[in-house]
Design brief:
Radius of gyration: 27 Å
Helix content: 40-55%
Structural class: alpha+beta
Strand content: 15-25%
Number of helices: 6
CATH class of the largest domain: Mainly Beta
Distance between the termini: 14 Å
Order of helices and strands: EHHHHHEEEEEEEH
Strand order of the largest sheet: 4-3-2-1-8
Largest sheet: 5 strands, antiparallel
Number of strands: 8
CATH topology of the largest domain: PH-domain like
Length: 212
């Protein structure tokens, strides 16, 4: 059994991690909807990341960059001295610009940015959660063989395991998807019973085996 005592969503890390969770959810839905497109995308990404000669090319770009920057400086300084030589100035500037471009080519690719739609959805989700003082609600969420049970001591909602369709994770959060498009944002610090390192695999097993 895994039991959560819901607390206020006031950790600043949530502003960064919630959009990432929603991005994971969006990508997972896309992969199920158009799997053929993701097969092609994954192959292209794998080739770009691990293709033959990638590290060699990166080193070569750096060497070219240093050489062109040095060449540009040596050409630009004499060109700026009196009497000025426009051709030398132009050649030096071109070499410096080319050197900077070579360094740009040598840089590793940055991680994909989170889509703005996910950022907006995250802001709305967090705004709704933060509008409630959870310390006064005594809301608890339990995951066991009966499914997911949310209760505040007065009323409760039970979601069978076969209605839970997704689980996504970041450093401080889990996002549980159920009943189609509904989602519950859980903070890892709110887990008061059960091992945090086992929760994701437990729920993923239930999802992959139809709730059993």
């Amino acid at each position: 059994m895994f039991l959560f005592q819901i607390s206020n969503y006031d950790d600043p890390a949530l502003d960064t991690e919630t959009p990432k969770l929603l991005h994971q959810r969006l990508e997972e839905h896309s992969r199920r909807t158009v799997p053929w497109m993701w097969k092609v995308t994954d192959r292209l990404n794998a080739h770009a990341a691990n293709g033959p000669g990638r590290e060699t090319r990166r080193t070569r770009y750096r060497v070219y960059g240093v050489f062109l920057l040095a060449l540009g400086v040596f050409a630009l300084i004499p060109g700026l001295m009196e009497p000025r030589m426009p051709a030398l100035i132009g050649a030096g500037t071109l070499a410096i610009v080319s050197g900077v471009l070579e360094f740009c080519l040598a840089r590793k690719r940055k991680p994909r940015a989170v889509p703005k739609a996910c950022q907006k959805e995250a802001e709305e989700l967090l705004s709704g959660r933060r509008a409630v003082d959870w310390s006064k609600t005594q809301m608890k969420v339990c995951f066991d063989e009966n499914g997911m049970t949310a209760s505040d001591g007065k009323k409760q909602e039970v979601v069978p395991n076969d209605k839970i369709t997704g689980i996504f994770e970041t450093d401080h959060l889990w996002l549980v998807v159920y009943d189609g498009e509904k989602a519950l944002l859980l903070q890892k610090k709110d887990l008061i019973e059960g091992a945090a390192e086992e929760f994701f695999s437990y729920l993923l097993h239930k999802i992959e085996h139809g709730g059993t």
